[in-house]
Specification:
Largest sheet: none
Distance between the termini: 127 Å
Helix content: 55-70%
Radius of gyration: 43 Å
Shape: rod-shaped
Number of helices: 9
Structural class: mainly alpha
Order of helices and strands: HHHHHHHHH
Length: 253
């Protein structure tokens, strides 16, 4: 058997079991490991049985990785070797399934998560459960996914759960991606509107300030010129050097 098809851990157990059962069935020795054929008493048939058992053990040993060889070294029949491996990984699969299910129900969408990363974590846990032949119903899978949404997704979660038929997981993924894009676009528009409102408020304050202190817009950035009637007694004419009028208002003489 190719090295990539050999059993190494619980994740490959069911694939290995299917392959080894087919190989043993093709070799007409599957009934030996299943216990359907018992060891005969007469010498001729017993000799044939022993040869078939040795061939079966050889097939089993060739199908497992080197780190599992010690698990079957002291077993003298192919049936014991087969049952030992099946029992070992059946127990491990139950523990692993319990651990993965617990992890799946505890998954929550973090603030830093985008919808794609959250769904990818859910999908990976489902795939790991499927590899150990632990199938979760679509209803449980979708419900668990929705329960992990943050509070900002409550309205979407309520509308999804209120449907007559619960969507399949892939449909939920697509709907959530579209909703995530809508929320992002809404947030951008809201920030744009808030920015415009703040800019308008700043401009309004400037206008109010000019009117309050009598500043002229054309002199903005320069020394402000107060509005109102000037005290002409302090104005000196540059032509006649008298007070009370400008040069252009002066009289010749």
């Amino acid at each position: 058997m190719k090295s990539e098809n050999k059993i190494e851990g619980a994740t490959k157990f069911w694939a290995w079991k299917m392959r080894i059962d087919l190989i043993l069935a093709w070799s007409d020795v599957l009934d030996i490991v299943k216990g359907k054929v018992s060891e005969p008493s007469d010498d001729e048939r017993k000799s044939k049985y022993e040869k078939e058992d040795i061939m079966t053990r050889s097939i089993i040993v060739d199908s497992i990785s080197d780190n599992l060889i010690p698990c079957v070294t002291n077993l003298d029949t192919s049936k014991k070797m087969y049952n030992s491996l099946v029992g070992l990984y059946t127990i491990n699969n139950i523990r692993q399934a319990m651990s993965l299910k617990s992890e799946l129900h505890d998954v929550n969408m973090l603030i830093s998560d985008i919808i794609a990363s959250y769904f990818m974590r859910i999908f990976q846990l489902r795939y790991q459960l499927q590899t150990i032949d632990e199938i979760i119903s679509n209803k449980e899978h979708v419900t668990t996914t929705i329960n992990g949404f943050p509070y900002s997704w409550d309205s979407f979660a309520s509308s999804t759960c209120g449907r007559k038929e619960i969507p399949i997981f892939e449909e939920l993924w697509t709907s959530c991606t579209q909703e995530d894009f809508r929320l992002i676009s809404k947030g951008r528009n809201q920030r744009f509107e808030e920015g415009n409102s703040q800019a308008f408020a700043r401009r309004s304050k400037k206008v109010v300030g000019r009117k309050k202190f009598g500043f002229q817009r054309r002199n903005e950035g320069k020394r402000p010129i107060p509005r109102g009637k000037k005290d002409m007694s302090k104005i000196q004419c540059y032509r006649c050097h008298k007070y009370g009028h400008f040069k252009r208002q002066g009289h010749e003489g």
